[in-house]
Amino acid sequence: MEEKKLVEACQQNKAGAFRELYDRYGGVLYGICLRYAGNEPEAQDILQEALIKIFNKVGSFRSEGSFEGWLKRLVANTAINHLKKSYRVNELGSTDDVVEFESNDISALDQLSVEELIDLINLLPEGYRLVFNMYVLEGYDHREIAKHLNISESTSRSQLVKAKRKLQESLRMNGYLLHERA
User: Fold this and answer.
1) Each residue of 62-87: pLDDT tens digit?
2) Contact residues for 77 (Cβ-Cβ < 8 A; gap 6+)
3) Mean pLDDT for the stretch of residues 144-150
4) 122 and 163 in contact (C-beta within 8 Å)?
5) Which burial class, exposed, middle or buried, applies to 2 when counting CB atoms under 10 A from its CB (0-12, 13-18, 19+)?
6) Quick check: pTM over 0.90?
7) Directed axis angle between helix 114-122 and helix 17-37, to 10°?
């Protein structure tokens, strides 16, 4: 079934429509949940919560953009809200000591599988991982992150810098970076 017909079928609660939606997008949506949660049981909880929201809100989708994009944004927001409730993200702390992050390291991303990259991201502390996911993977800017997480923009920037440094350390320790920074 083409995407437009799938959306209409879901909006009309037609039999099998949500199953097809899940079959088509479930893996991608679960991947988003896993990036935020850091472990499979929590990712499954977030996905279940997100699927309920999708079921309840699919009628509000107005075909003004990509349906998959709408789904991904809804899942990311569900994950963020879940983490705000579960981990008290508001306690990330505040800091204005943002140091510019410059790297001469050769990109290790081409050497990593998706699973290895997700594993490294999941090793980040909760606040770092959340800001990293929102900024790098979901495309939020620091103003939006600050608003969602009830933190300052400088805290968001600082958390991102620290996340990048932690990832860089992990990549270097695992032999993925080809040379040290100059």
Assistant:
1) 888 889 989 998 999 898 888 877 65
2) 148
3) 88
4) no
5) exposed
6) no
7) 50
Contacts 24+ apart (CB under 8 A), 58-62: 58/7, 58/10, 58/11, 59/11, 61/7, 61/11
Task: Indicate the pLDDT class of residue 19, thresholds 50, 70 and 90.
Answer: very high
Q: Angle, to 10 degrees, between the axis of helix 67-87 and the axis of helix 40-57?
A: 130
Radius of gyration of the chain (CA): 18
The Cα–Cα gap between 166 and 171 comes to 9
What domains does the chain contain, in order, with CATH numbers?
3-87 (1.10.1740.10), 92-173 (1.10.10.10)
Residue partners of 52: CB distance under 8 A and separation at least 6: none
Separation between Cα atoms, residue 181 and residue 168, nearest integer Å: 10
Mean pLDDT of 145-152: 89
